[in-house]
Amino acid sequence: MPMKTFLRLLYIIIFSLAFVACKDDEKATSTDKELRRTVLVYQCAQNSLGYHNYHRMDSLEIVNGRKYINDNDCLLVFIDDGRGCARLYRYISGNARPLLVRLWDHAVNASDPSMLQEVLTWTREHFTAREYGLVFWSHADGWLPSTNTDYAATRVQSFGIDVGTGGDMHKDKSVGGDIGAQMNIPDLASAVANSGIHARYIFFDACLMQTLEVAYDLRNVTDYIVASPFSTPGYGAYYTHLLRKGLFSNDPTDIARTFYADVVEDAEISPQYDDFGMVISCLKTEGLELLADVTREVLGRSSLMLHASPDMGDVLHYQSYEADFFYRPHAFDALAAMSHLLSAEDYALWSNAFSQVLVWHGISSRFWVGPSLNSYFFVNSDLHSGVSMFVPQAVYGTNAPVCPHGDHNKNFRQTAWYAAAGFAQTGW
What pTM, to 2 d.p., does this model score? Predict the structure, then answer.
């Protein structure tokens, strides 16, 4: 039996034993004092990630790292994996197993914004803190609009996939299917805002989420965004280390730094990531509106004007534009893309504004972009940011009939970033 398979089975066995003794009289439903920070990990796992038990392995990592949780901090993990009802656990330093603090008595759709809002509101009311950290754990497609918002039918990227009762994730036993409802990013932002929570940080343990379009949608609900612009490996973040230095740190960049070090530098942990490489960054949302203003100014003199479609073939990107990836758009590095589209003078103006937003980023010398196992992008310059952006191109309209999302150029026009950054003046 391969070592990785053995470890996965061991994780599942230990995790199951850890939870078998949970009883109602162990529930801790609230705190009697205001906490310094409450961190909620929102696991939308009724999909292939849950089918392969990645959430269970992460939960074991949290059990192993619980000793790093201080008494005046709180860690909650919401899990919806299709194996019984959704539940919410609290992890405490001195407890060998997590405490069940809430159990839903009906099937839920974790990709429904109203469900997210319910969990967040309940968290704020029962585990009130001076500040909050939010971790969104699932599949994701960045800023792209949902292809399915049928939440009520629970067939439920945008963020999260919930395949729901009768979903297709078990049809292909080797990989699991992922056809289900997804949450649009503006709806995610509204759910956070309506819950009454303003996050110190939002960390996406999910693919393709560090984009200017996503960040702009979230600018009013969080101070920092930690995420990756590329397709992260399914193993995800290593939560034992994130609890030691990351989720409760005063510096949100520690989340990005720790995740990056685990993938690229840690000799014990990095083999779990199958040589994917790593790209991750931390953005400060405070400067995003100024960045939009500067973008609007310089786009009027860019090579996108008059509906032009400049050749972007050599520009650093984090997602290959391939049929195997459902024709998701290239995730161009924001710094590299703007350098390519602007004059040297305008690029200097734009990059100065961007530097007020980008707090930290890490990028390995090569990273996987797919679709084949050997498809890597080799980084050969210092022109990178760990943040992606959409650049309109004619090919997106050409291939719209075979793309599940349709025409990316048209979808882009619906984003708040498109309007704020002045892309309309280019003719796109």
Answer: 0.89
